[in-house]
Every structure is written in C-alpha cells, then in structure tokens.
Amino acid sequence: MSIRLFNTLTREIEDFQPTDPHRVRMYTCGPTVYNYAHIGNFRAYVFEDLLQRHLEFRGFTIDRVMNLTDVDDKTIRGCRHAGVPLGEFTREYKQAFFQDLDALRIKRAAHYPEATASDHITRMIEMISDLVKKGHAYRAEDGSVYFRIRTFPNYGKLAHFNLDELQPSGRVASDEYEKEQIGDFALWKAWDEADGDVFWESPWGRGRPGWHIECSAMATAILGASLDIHCGGEDNIFPHHEAEIAQSESVTGAPFVRYWLHCKHLLVDGRKMAKSEGNFFTLRDLQAKGWTGREVRYVLLSVKYREQLNFTFESLEAARKSLARFDEWSRRLQETASTTPEPLPETLDPERFGAALDDDLNISAALGALFELIRESNRLLDAGQLTPGQARSLLAWRERIDSVLNFSADDEGVPAEVQALVDQRTAARANKEWALSDVLRDQILALGWQVKDTKDGQKVSRKG
RNA sequence: GGUGGAAUAGCCAAGUGGUAAGGCACAGCUCUGCAAAAGCUGGAAACGCAGGUUCGAUUCCCGCUUCCACCUCCA
Questions:
Q1: Domain locations in chain A?
Q2: Higher pLDDT, A98 or A409
Q3: A4-263, which class in CATH?
C-alpha cells in the first residue's frame, strides 16, 4: 500500500512517488529568528516531523532542509531596538529554537541554512541577476529589484488565485509605487536608513535579499532544482510559495516541487491565537506552567494536519493522561516480556497504525488504533493470557511506532533523597505502621514525587 | 468583495450511502490499611439549522447560520 498525500497544487490526494525511489528531498520553511517561536509555529514543525518520521518508517531516506531566516524587517527592527549587531541578536533565538525543537522531540533536519551566510547571499544575487537578464525582474529607481509576475503565466496556480481578483488587504504598506504591477514582489530590497548597518553590496547597490528568494536559493543549492516535498503553514501558500515557484522555475527551467503540503493553523480556545487576545503562547510559556515538551508534542501531533487544531489547557491535561496510559502499558509489557518473540494474538492488529498514517497522515485514526491495541493487550494481561513472548513482540511493535510518535517517557532516575524515604516506607509498610507510611508518602510528595502502592510494591514517579 | 476549509457526545477528535473509532471527563467494578494510581466495564435514540435526491444520509446536492484561513514578506 502506498502513501497518499494531499497536494495543495492539485488539491487532490495523490500517491507519493519520490523522484528517487528511496531518497526524499524535502524542504520545510523554518522560523524567522527575531523572537521565541510560538506553539502555532511548532504545530507546523511537529507536522513536518511526523511526515519525516512516517516516511522513514516506510523505508525512505529523508534529506530535509529547514531554513533559518535571520534577516528581514523584524530581525532588523529587533536588533536595532536592542542595540546589538544583527548576528548577535538572532543568535539567541536560533539557540532557543533548537532547544525548543529538542524539547518537542522534533528530529533534526539534515541542513539548517542561514539566509545571511555569504554563500547563500551570493547565490541569491546570482539568481536575481539571472532573472533580470531573462526579463523576469527589473530594478526600480530606488535600487530594489522586483519579480515581474506577468512573465510567469502560472503565477497564482498554487493558491488558485486569479490575479485580476487580487485585492490589497491593507495589511502591507503600499509605498512601493515603483512597482510595475501591484503583485510584483521584491527580490532585493534597497537599503534605507532604518536598516542601519545591515546591508550587502550588489549589482543594484546596497541592500538585502527579499524573503522569498532566500528559500529558492537555499533549497535549490542544497537539494537541486527539483524537490519532492515542500511544506509549510497554510499562510505560506500565498504569496511565499507562489513566489518561490515563480523565481525558482524561471531560473532553473525545471519543476520546482512535486508535492506541496500545508498544515492548517491552530486556534486557542476556539479563537485565533493573538497577543492582543491574551491567548498567545510560546513553548516556554507552557513549560513555565509545568507542561513538558512531550505533552505539548502530543497535543500538537494528535490532530490531523489538514484540520484546525483547537489548543486548550484541557487538551494538555488529556495529553498528560493519555501519555500516562501509554507509559503504564509499556511498563506492564516490560515486566511480562521474555527475550524470544512470538506471534501476536489475532485480536491485536498491528497494521492499522501505519495504514492510517499512509492515508494522508491520519494521526487521529492511528492513535485510535494504538489505544485499541493497548486496551486489548491490557485485557489479555489482566487475564494472564498474554505470553511473555507475545509481550516481547508487542514491545518490538511499540518501538517501531514510537520511532514515529516519539512518546516514550524520559528515563528519570529517582534522587537518592527520595529513594531513602521510599525504602523507609517499604519497611514501615512491612510492619503495618500505616501512620508512618502516610507521613512518608507526604514527604515524598513534597519533594515532587509520588508513590503508588501496587501488588508488586511501591512505584515511584514524578508528580504529574 | 474574491477564494478556500470546517461544524460529530461535557471537552478534543476519526469515520462511513445502510443506523457512529479513539482520548479526556463521568459512572460502576476489581485491586487496596487508607488514599492515589492502574486495569476492566458502561453510555451518543440520527453527527450546526432547514430542504432535496435515495428503499435508506451524519455521509451526496441546494440554501441558511456560525467559526476559521488566505487575498503580497504571519506556521
């Protein structure tokens, strides 16, 4: 069974066939490093992580690129406000970004090119020069260079926009009177005073690259003229990805991307996330409230990428409980398993999980299959009907699907201080000193750990 | 104004032209010194509203309502 993905370009679910049968060239639009990324940004990155991991699960090798936009209006404004050089300003947010990726258990891309790297600036200038030479771009009076969209008949094809119907939304300052056509977009932005010392020399004078050209330059430099997959948030469809197609194909003459995948935005409490609404969260905000990256990952992952995801604190609570169920099931299997795998009972269906993900990454259905399998195997464990060999096979299956989900609990050692109290409590309980037992339980709780009295003695874990 | 997406139990969320996966919450049971935890079990008399097509629609079509998104640098 092949993998089916929804292609924004055709608006259809298509069988996925990379150019090279085994290697997938994948480009994912990354962050602009002027601030800490918010959970909406991370929904996109978690979706891309799921895509990469499932493709790997199915045997593909993924060569993935994610760019870091470290020069644009916001980064320049930010560094000037902070009174530090651009590179210094963005460095902090780059580091924070990678910390957040780790917390969310997002697999690293193979490449994280930075827009300001000199090789990339050089390539952008070369591409723009080529576009000017071919008549696809022109230099305006102030030294900015624009792409001439009427030279690219397919412009608007990805977004399915009719150019004649495009209307300025008023969101963007329309001070670019020098453009031939309203839809022409900047390839190179001429320096002005607000840019301070941020500029590069070019054939058109001092300036800096436009946003769109950065992705085209870095994607084609690293992955070649044609990519298999290009992802981003739905807001990137227009104009960003539309512009990337126009630039890239006008330079290379080759189809830029075969499969375009876009994830929907998330809402918070049913509303658009916005600072002015007071429902705007970075990962750090949630961590400060005691939520772990694993829990946030679960929430961001658990809804299909083509549906809006309604983020709530109730959903975080549910994620915590669901993960606890997964952890407990894993622990029970571990206790039962032998070393020799045996065929699974017929009531367990290990194929549904992957099959659901093959179907345009239907993660909800995949998780449904996982939890049904958990319930059924718990039932068998309760009845003593799951053999140690079958438990071993289930653990092996668990490892496989966890290569996609990455839900496993961190192995966290119990501090000696806590362990000492637990040992005392074990002794107290052996003597039926219940009052002492309860006091010790409270002391352990005060240290941030909790004990559960099971048939097999005390189990200690981090207080949820 | 243009274009696109969505409305399923208290909450989140799959799915199908023939009477609804899963998770959380809730209730019961088991376990237990107590508690907690864990496991199991249970539950929607029709899936936004009003029509139409059909033997039959939540699933197809029309209209309406509400929400969301994009319309030139917001994932």
A1: 4-263, 271-405, 416-462
A2: A98
A3: alpha beta
**What is the CATH topology of the domain spanning A271-405?**
Isoleucyl-tRNA Synthetase; Domain 1 (1.10.730)
A4 with A358: CB under 8 angstroms?
A: yes
Q: Over the stretch A336-378, which tens digit does the pLDDT of each residue have?
A: 999 999 999 989 999 999 999 999 999 999 999 999 999 999 9
Residue A166 — pLDDT band, cuts 50, 70, 90?
low
- A355 Cβ within 7 A of any nucleic strand B atom: no
Give burial (CB, 10 Å; 0-12/13-18/19+) of A158.
buried
The stretch A406-431 carries a mean pLDDT of: 87
Structure confidence by residue, pLDDT tens digits, A221-250: 999 999 999 999 999 999 999 999 999 999
Residue A120 is which amino acid?
H
Q: Which of residues 20-39 of A touch strand B (CB under 7 A)?
A: 29, 31-32, 38
Decide: A28 and A231 in contact? Cβ < 8 Å. Answer: yes
CB under 8 Å to A418, separation ≥6 — which residues?
A444, A447, A449, A460
Both structure tokens of A204: 């058109």
C-alpha to C-alpha distances, A392 to A1, A246, A333, A399, nearest whole angstrom = 27, 53, 7, 11
User: What type of residue sits at position A208?
Assistant: R
Instruction: Round and report the angstrom distance from CA (A52) to C1' (B58).
Output: 34
